Amino acid sequence: MQTDTLKSLVVDALEELKARDVVELDVAELTSVTDVMVVASGTSSRHVSALADNVIEKAKEAGLRPLGVEGQQSGEWVLVDLGDVIAHVMMPETRQLYDLERLWADLPADSRRATGDADRQELRG
């Protein structure tokens, strides 16, 4: 499945159950682990679990099995790994604490700088 199609499937599954503050982060240039992270909030631990379950169900209906699911028991932060797309569904307090949007937004300048320095050293050496 194409990354954009998978991303739409995840966002639609989250929006279907009224996820809050859904954000898509393109991290393809920053990590080889995934291409897109979708971050969303639920209103309660039950809502977080239901949102994650809906993502899993919609993925399975599309013929995809998650590579991994973490955090379903607590409902504070559930991660659904679909390979090219990873969904992070969190309670608002947990989301604020870990602030994934800021964390990943801060990385491009640092990673480009580190890559640029390495490229310059290779050219010199």
TrEMBL record:
The keyword Nucleus does not apply. It is found in: Cytoplasm. Its main location: cytoplasm. Keywords: Cytoplasm, Repressor, Translation regulation. It comes from the Bacteria. The keyword Thylakoid does not apply. It holds the Pfam family RsfS. InterPro entries: Iojap/RsfS/C7orf30, NT_sf. Gene3D superfamilies: Beta Polymerase, domain 2. Belongs to the Iojap/RsfS family. Interacts with ribosomal protein uL14 (rplN). Functions as a ribosomal silencing factor. Interacts with ribosomal protein uL14 (rplN), blocking formation of intersubunit bridge B8. Prevents association of the 30S and 50S ribosomal subunits and the formation of functional ribosomes, thus repressing translation. This is Ribosomal silencing factor RsfS.
